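Please predict the structure of the following assembly.
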Amino acid sequence: MGTGAVLRTAALLGAAAIGALILGGAAAVARAQGATFTTLERGRYLVDAGDCAACHTAEGGKSMAGGRPIPTPFGTIYSTNITPDKETGIGNWTDEEFYKAMHDGIGPGGKRYYPAFPYPWYTKLSAEDVRAIKAYLDAIPAVRQKDEPPDLPWPLTIRKVMAIWNALYFRAATYQPNPAKSAAWNRGAYLVDGLGHCGACHTPKNILGAPKWDEHLAGGFGEHWYAMSLTSDPRDGLGAWSEQEIVEYLKTGSIAKAAAAGPMAEVVQNSTQHLSDADLKAIATYLKDLPGGGRVAGAAPTKIDSAAMAHGKSLYLDQCTGCHLEEGTGIAEVFPPLKGSAAVQAKDPATVLEAMIDGATVVATAAKPTGLAMPAFGWKLNDSELADLATYIRNAWGNQASAVTRGQVSKARKESQQSAAK
Amino acid sequence: MISWLGPSTAIGKTGSLLPPAVTPGAFSYFSPAEIAFVDAAVSRLIPADELGPGAMEAGVTFFIDQQLSGPYGRAEAWYMQGPWQKGTEQQGYQLKLTPAQLYRAAIKDIDEYCRRTLQKAFADLAAPDQDKVLHGLEKGEIELPGAPAKEFFNLLWENTGEGFFADPIYGGNREFAGWKLIGYPGPRYNYVNEIEQYGKRYAMPTVGLAGRSGLPRRNEG
Amino acid sequence: MATRLKPVDVVLVGFGWTASILAQELTEAGLEVLAIERGKYRDTDPDFATTHIQDELKYAVRHALFEEPARETLTFRNSADQTALPMRHLGSFNPGAGVGGAGVHWNGQNWRFLPTDFKQRSHIEQRYGRKFIPEGMTIQDWGISYEDLEPHYDKWEYLCGIAGQAGNIQGKIQDGGNPFEAPRARGYPLPPLKRSAATVKFDQAAREAGFKPFPCAAANTSKPYKNPYGVQMGECTYCGYCEWFACGNYSKSSPQTTILPVLLKKSNFSYRTLCDVTRVNLDSSGTRATGVTYVDFQGREFEQPAELVILCAFAQHNVHLLLLSKIGQPYDPKTNRGVIGRNYAYQITSSVAVFTDEIMNPFMGAGALGQAIDEFNGDNFDHGPEGFIGGGYIALWTTGGRPILQQRDLPEGTPKWGAGWKKAMQENYLRSASIATHGSVMSYRDSYLDLDPTYRDIYGNPLLRLTFDFHDNEHRMSKFLTDKAALIAKTMKPKSIKVKYREGHYSIVPYETTHNTGGAVMGADPKTSAVNRYLQSWDVPNLFVMGSAVFPQNAGYNPTGTVGALTYWAADAIRNMYLKRPGPLVQV
């Protein structure tokens, strides 16, 4: 280890963009039979797009070895080992078995998966893409790590029960291009509704945890954060975003009017920042074509209690103007504006409350490495203050959204504490 | 839990970043005689008058009590290794006494001095006599057997200013008495518009670290 | 028995400004770099959050962000005939502790030194004759020129997003800037901060008095700024809690806001906190550093081997480490031999308080929000008739109006306490300002650092001993500056002014500045310097020393800008010369 000018590759923030020829670590060896380098590269790209690591790599754990607790409303499910280990991973699986898992949600031996594994979206993938993913997963280092059984109440522990759920809510179906739409639109639909499984958070679910397909991407929950509507509603959706803004947000983690924090930060970091510009543009094309789903534009504004607004305003001026400034405008690329923000005016205030209670850190990407943070206010303000402050920012400066109650704040606190305990 | 947070933040949740709430009046260091002395002394240092409350009304005695009960009073951050030597004025504090010990020793000595020369404890003297004693301490003209008078006076005056002007969460500056006297609006983080409004009095209500009430409240749920 | 660790290419002692810059530069060169910091990790969220940071008692009065004398302090005396006694609690200066160092809690007042500052001795001798320099004044040239440093000043300023108005771009004097500044290649990356009421009044009065005032250059961003590393900073909101506090909205330049977001993600950089470096280890020849020894927070000792050791701790801590490690010859004031500890200097400041009838809102401010004149700095004026050497700037800063410690200047004759004091506070708090003078301190034979014979730190090592006083030269120079400041103050047509000369002995008690310099000075001659022009130790070529310890004497400007520039200069030398051929970079 001399002090000569040794040039090392300083790996900054994750894998290179598509077309790059550098694979990290020991993954350079193609173990899958007949897999070409191109296939492996394609598989790696698709794994990024599908954000498999988000579930299958535990915190501090080995890549894709599973063991990560996935909270669901019904209990905790632990992700599985998808490295090519023959005993504890998927090293013994055939391509067909892997396809059946992705397409039908059924593993070898008929083992049904819980939809925490987003097969209702992965079902859309083409057989060729699934093969490429498998080829890549066959090439990564094998890790010996047994899967943990899920922590669910009976009878959900009986996997066969999922047959009922599937019958009600799931149709296995590869994506069929819409001939009336452009190639970019179709590619976007394939990514959003397939690998990207955006609806797993952004589509509301019923009490059985099934997506409400008729409220496609109209806003849902990602853990206890509210994933805003991606429809064209100008207040509660992407109506005010341009295609270019959607692309930049997914690629860099922020735009002047919004920044990715919470679970979305991790999606940008592990997945979307690695997608090609063409794919990001396709996603934007598709999303911008979604009908306005959220609230009906022009609906009568809800009546907000003036005492709550006054209280919220005084708190805002005392606590928030250091970053979000007096008129809620924030500072472009530094602190997101609250005025006109879709995240602030979202149907459900859970994200607003989570950010206020625990703070939020913007994702650090290769393009924007800073990771600016909002501090926590939950320790400083009580429930009544947080409720009125949230009501204020949701309705000041031309914003319009429902008032926030103390009950909602107390629920948000509880969920935040529960998630910390995990 | 997904951890996109930096290394300094624990996963999830931040506890309180302000000191624990004090219960005004719950003295934990001073004896009743010491409270009486400090009440009387700070009432001369910053008296109540037509301009508003003085140091005593503002809770400065309680503030000093709380400070002396804590790490400051114990000189925890100070270099308190020997050997001990009297230094020059330029060499600063060289007493073996911590601030808490200095108060205890000095107050005892001053009260004894007052009883001996003026027949009353300091707190029972008339205001002009109290002032005379304070001036005597300030100039180092009064000899105290257990503590240097000037050193003690300087510390008392310093702590009085702290108690009068620190955030109310520390027990002094009650109801922003100190800040309202001078027109300081409290810790605010944005004067972008106001800074160029030359000559204009700032109109926002006074706020403290715990909000406009001054003292932190329990979570009302 | 120290545990021996795996070697690294570079070990940096301390993790403040200079370490952050060097780590970024040397990791770019492909080296494996480790920084060892005695304090703890800190970041904007949650440690500097707006929700709690404006707490004057905790931070300014009880020193929450600074080092604790219980752990490390020094002993002090004015002159060698006294016994040095410990600085038992902080007073005159506030060294930082923790990741980011003093870069976290500084005001952000940023300057370049003058070309003549770097040639202090030769210039004075040339202009005024050798006899103009009094006996016992040991000023010397730095061994580099301003021109050497210019591109590195530029790099530092664009790293930080300095907000200012250039005065001299490539020789062309610019309107509204400092006409006395040295030529710069280009302007500042950001425009000046907004002006406060008091700085506007100073500006008017200074012009009336015939001077050329300009806005001070600030490491407080005037606009959102993305630096060359891609790191994003915010915009200053004039909250008035800069120095001794940390910035909660990413608008003060610090390692955290300018470098760490990219540095900490590099796989070839690592750091350890709560680890105290106690020695630089040498091989048996004594001419090669093998690494450092440090103690962790559990009291366990470790030996960290490295190919290159760089001292990045606060000024005099670097000198202390050199003395404890027996690197270089310790300075002996009696014989005037030796270099480690020699030429300690500081800053001499004074002020003129101004009391008006107008609302000035002092609590609206920023650490480097000021208006200044530079007519009387360096050798910008003829010193012949004055008979002293040095100078300083005169500025009205509005850094804040924090009620416990700031804004306590009251008119002449105000009682020290009581009803009269109270009334004066009520009348003057909103309506007063202060003009500061910021003067140079030359080095002297009798101003130095060495090891104390009596007092020890928590590891049993002797404390550093400081022997220092203001000399007649500095007193006269300071009075000169103060009188000029009073002239401007009177021109402001106030109700009254209060002139506060800096008189008498230097005291360790009231806060003055944290501009401690010298003790490991740079130069061309190993007999009078500890490091060469590249900040490389003459004695141990694989050891470099950063920070203001290398200043041969102190100029009339805040030192951080020059510290930053010197760090980039040294990094450049290491990358482009030392790494290609390790060994002494300067032959004598």
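The helical segments of chain B are 32-45, 60-69, 99-118, 127-138, 149-165, 177-182. The two ends of chain B are 26 Å apart (CA to CA).
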